[in-house]
Design brief:
Length: 173
């Protein structure tokens, strides 16, 4: 029996405040986009790119798990969600809508100096990063060597531009 409610034949036009559905792992690619270093701190900029055929959105922080060369999760390294870090100001999480091929960016920051007071002489070797989009459980992975010290990395929220790294302070004349 035919339904009494109309069936849309084309997607509805996006109105003010409309956000595309959340991005999921099958439509995402993880890439490294650069980084910076200073005073024993490191930051790498990463992006999730929409490789799907429809728009999607990312909001909040990515889930980040670090792995060793054998694909084991490095559970001794915690991923802390922060609004900003050593090189960035605070960024309030806001939805980033991704048309096909667009990217949303986030940073992973860490200390490069062993925490000798905690008995750390050598920092762990990370071989791979696993990232999950908010609300998703399937990861997107990237082989990426890091050596985070102190048992933690800081992860910033998604943003629509790559360059959130603040310029280095200039010496006064």
């Amino acid at each position: 029996r035919p339904s009494s409610s109309p069936v849309p034949t084309a997607p509805a036009a996006a109105g003010a405040g409309a956000v595309a559905p959340p991005c999921r792992a099958p439509q995402l690619r993880l890439t490294a986009e650069g980084g910076d270093a200073g005073a024993g701190n490191r930051v790498s900029v990463f992006a999730l790119q929409n490789i799907g055929r429809a728009a999607c959105s990312l909001s909040g922080h990515p889930g980040v798990t670090l792995q060793d060369g054998q694909g084991r999760n490095l559970t001794a390294i915690r991923s802390d969600q922060v609004m900003g870090g050593y090189f960035t100001g605070g960024v309030a999480p806001a939805p980033v809508e991704l048309a096909p091929q667009d990217k949303a960016f986030f940073d992973i920051a860490w200390s490069a100096i062993p925490h000798e007071g905690q008995g750390e002489r050598v920092c762990p070797n990370v071989a791979r990063i696993r990232v999950t989009a908010p609300g998703d459980t399937s990861p997107v992975t990237l082989d990426q060597p890091l050596q985070p010290c102190g048992g933690r990395v800081q992860v910033t929220p998604f943003r629509p531009v790559a360059d959130s790294v603040a310029p280095a302070p200039q010496p006064s004349a």
